[in-house]
Amino acid sequence: MGVSNTGGSADTAATVQLLVDDDANREALQTILERRYVVTTDASELSGDLVLVDDRSFASSRDVIETPDDEDRLEFTPVVLLRRAGTRLDESLLTTGPSGERPLIDEVVDAPVQPTILFRRLDNLITRRRQFELLQNQNEQLEAFADVVSHDLRNPLQIATGRLELLESSVPTDEQVHVEEIQTSLERMEKIVESMLTLAQRGNDTGALTPVSVGDVADDAWAVIDAPDATFVNSAAETTILADEDQLQTIFENLFRNAVEHGTAGESAGSETEGTLTGAIEIAVSGIEDGFVVEDDGAGIPPEKRERVLERGYSGGDGGTGLGLDIVLTVVEAHGWDITLEESDAGGTQFLVTGVTRVE
């Protein structure tokens, strides 16, 4: 075993599982790796933060590498293959499966080993594993919080709504405004509960990726948006992509709601209509070469705020939760796509989702 010598303590050093059958090669690699990592040579089961195997030992180690992780283990353990010059490699080992399965080998490093290059490649993969672990922990905390929200808040909300309906008929007409304000607050709380549950249920996973029509899914999403004064223009009828259909609809629903709720405020600070939500906005969906676009002709977002809008948990301070775009980000990332925010041609907001697989 070795201890990290890069400024971290032994208990925080990454563990590299070295699967090399040849004694001399294993000892030489272990000497190099121990400058930076904890090294284990146990070949009975996956036990490291990263697996390093050479091409001679890959066949004998494959069963261990392919063994499904236990429920208590992370689902992402990077595998690096050390390849001798001239060794042919089955390219299928490096490609993603048809349903999004991870490749069996994440990186290939050619021999002879150059320590600086090797360390950089391994560090990058270990960082990805750490990020995956952090995301997994966040999802678990979110699910636990969503359970609390669902069980401990929904029942009181339903009771409060029912009692308010009973009281409404006995409240004088000139006092009905208070009933309306209470009802609005209760409905807002219910929306928050629904958003939290949706975000927790989606997590960072997708279902089966199948060919879906962007135009059809956008139409279905618009059908559930309550915006009678808004106009919807759908130009994506010819755009078909690989996606989880339900999650794609979730993206559209949240982007549409974001446009209606935030894009229809006053045209500029200090204007007479500042802060009013008229719903009089045009929202358009269209396909592009590697994805799709959702844009509007609303008030837009100042350039200095655009990057922050796509940060997790960001809220513009208008009473929103910031969860709508959080859900969009979660679903986009689960698909391996990218999302950017720009100004639309009409001066409003334009969301571009790219990195999408088109189906002809």
UniProtKB/TrEMBL annotation:
InterPro entries: HATPase_C_sf, HATPase_dom, His_kinase_dom, HisK_dim/P_dom, HisK_dim/P_sf, Sensor_HK_Regulatory, Sig_transdc_His_kin-like_C. Transmembrane segments: none annotated. It holds the Pfam family HisKA. Coiled coil: none annotated. Its EC number is 2.7.13.3. It catalyses: ATP + protein L-histidine = ADP + protein N-phospho-L-histidine. Keywords: Kinase, Phosphoprotein, Transferase, Two-component regulatory system. Residues 148-354 form the Histidine kinase domain. The keyword Phosphoprotein applies. One of its GO terms (molecular function) is phosphorelay sensor kinase activity. CDD domains: HATPase, HisKA. This is histidine kinase.
